[in-house]
Specification:
Helix content: 25-40%
Distance between the termini: 64 Å
CATH architecture of the largest domain: 3-Layer(bba) Sandwich
CATH topology of the largest domain: FAD/NAD(P)-binding domain
Number of domains: 3
Mean pLDDT: 96
Low-confidence stretches: none
Oligomer: single chain
CATH superfamily of the largest domain: FAD/NAD(P)-binding domain
Number of strands: 22
Number of helices: 14
Length: 460
Amino acid sequence: MTAAMGEATEVDVVVIGLGPGGEYAANKLASAGLRVVGVEKHLVGGECPFYGCIPSKLWIRGSDLVGEARRADALAGPTTITPDWGRVAHRIRDEATNDWTDDNHVQGLVDAGVTVVRGHARLDGPGRVVVEGPDAGVYAAARGVVLNSGTEPAELPIDGLADTPYWTNREVFKMEQVPASIAVIGGGPIGCELAQALRRFGAEVTVLEVADRLMTVEEPESSELVTRLFLEEGIDVRTGVRIDRVDHADDRFTLTVDGEELVADRLLVAAGRRPNLAGVGLETLGLDPEARRVETDERMRAGERLWAVGDITGHGAFTHVSMYQAAVAVRDLLGEDGPWADYRAVSRVTFTDPEVGSVGMTEQQARDAGLTVTTAVSDLPQSSRGWLHAAGNDGLVKLVCDADRGILVGATSVGPSGGEVLSMLATAVHAEVPVATLRTMHFAYPTFHRAVEVALKALG
């Protein structure tokens, strides 16, 4: 299916942006027999497999092994390890990203019946899409358009920064060797994960965060624990800072932070992302092109014959949310029944060591929502498995309860298996399992998840 500019090719659905959500939607719709065009101007598959989730977790797997080896002395005897970044770089380049080519992703869509088009797509009214670039053309989508244009690293308004060769997530994952020193701007999930991994592979790391603590979207208890462990590992953590200027000369960066100079070999900017909404033609459907997010209903409908999924909807920049939303949009496009979108129990994990998993509301969010809140925190090292685990057993479980309804509305699980323990808490929040029922459960001994039982008893 090709079209000259101005001549519209008729299809059923056009998917703009083939990141995880768009790729999923295109595949499922084509597999259902619809005529589907998928448009992507970068790599099919999006950030996750090439510059996000997958390469970062390969980093972190190696980093965790380094951390465990260094703990072995206390429990198993003297152990030495010489971290070799080349092994991580090999896995990222050759096993995960295929040297940053998307052939496998494209082939999967083609096999499902999707026509993959390269270029920049913009809306031109309901159901109409204009593609500019290598595969220029115009498409008229009888059923509509799925918009999954994603995000890109935010450009920070710091004097001098734009004129320097700083790294974002796109450059850092192509790193062939670990720098002697690196400054990381941003103490959120990405910044914290990569800072710890870089430190364990030998870099001197400074984390700069303008807020008053790391991981500001998480519970204060989580931030305090991770900060303490970072400091113990030799990471220089500076919060509540003002970054006045960045310069680059003689292959080194100089950052002016709170009036003082900080020098590092490399600079990683991991301080948020901005939605790719400029130039996608939202105004042609009566939507605000300057908006920071695309508003959607429970069926992921954003406008006339327009569905939106992924980061641009503002419900969390997570692959699992994007694919969840894509499944909702697919059901609606195929005329199927729900279930429709529900964000009460969105879960997330920051893969530091220890992992920080959370679901639903934080304590502050629950109080801001006007709920009658009770909370409880249990200390992982004091749990049965935590005591046995010993070295590297730092962690906690925090529960946020709506006392009027007797259900959990949020929870946090920090620990060596924090993201896995979170699954039972996510079920409890999603299904609104009464706290009274949770207290009657059997909690296998000795496990990390027994810390949940302790916290439940402490709710009162």
